[in-house]
Amino acid sequence: MHFYYLLILAFTFSYPLFKSFETKIQFYKKWNALFPAILISAILFIIWDIWFTKLGMWYFNHDYVMGLFLVNLPIEEWLFFFITPFSCAFIYEVLIYFVKKDIFAKASKTISIVLILLLLITAFLNYSKIYTTFTFISLAAFLIYHQFINKSAYLSRFYLTWLVCMVPFLIVNGLLTSLPIITYNNLHILNIRIYTIPIEDIFYGMLNILLVISIYEFLKQRKI
Q1: Residue 214 and residue 127: Cα distance in Å, rounded?
Q2: Quick one: pLDDT at residue 59?
């Protein structure tokens, strides 16, 4: 029982790691750009996680973790911010290789505008809910940067990636919140859930992966 969180992470990590050495994609050759991107993102999100845990936004069930804690976070939670981005970046590269057409190229701006408006309106209408407000405003600001300032060419590719990532995301987060390994404080969320997953987690994960992809793409281009 104490290894449930670790087993979920192992399940998430094993297939992308194994397929990283597949001759077509050769994902391992991109690790020199990916690993710094994951590290930078992990540092920021772990600080966020530590802060919100201290504020009582969420709690970890000691029955499902090994018991090794660093700054009030189980070691599995630290690993989460390295393993999940690795797996999503793998999906990102797989989709680039196998889906040649940029499916969301024409719709990317519309998607961004709709998301930005929904996020900002929801955040301001629920400003007292800290997890909701902080997550939604952060993602909206980052999308504004990508769509209107940096005009990131890969944003449409990211939207496809996140759509595909939603399948494993819902499985993994469904397990984390249904056992539950993580319990959320309802005072700080909208309490709108997909099964047992708070809706905020979807946008929190989206922000995390978009940050990793952004740094990853920047480092790849700098190398070229």
Answers
A1: 28
A2: 94
pLDDT tens digits along 12-64? 999 999 999 999 889 999 999 999 999 999 999 999 999 999 999 999 999 99
Quote the tokens at residue 183.
């319990």
Q: How far apart are CA 41 and CA 108, in angstroms?
A: 24
Two tokens, residue 100 = 């040649």
Query: Given a cut of 80, is residue 201 above it in pLDDT?
Result: yes
- Separation CA 72–CA 187 (nearest Å): 21
Residue 172's closest CA among 98, 93, 85, 95? Answer: 85
Residue length of the chain: 224
Strands, E assignment, the chain? 58-60, 69-70, 73-74, 182-184, 193-194, 197-198
Q: Is the peptide bond before 180 cis (omega within 30 degrees of 0)?
A: yes
**Domain map of the chain by residue range?**
4-223
Query: Model confidence over 71-98: pLDDT tens digits?
Result: 999 999 999 999 999 999 999 999 999 9
Element (H, E) at 35: helix 31-54
The whole model's pTM is what?
A: 0.96
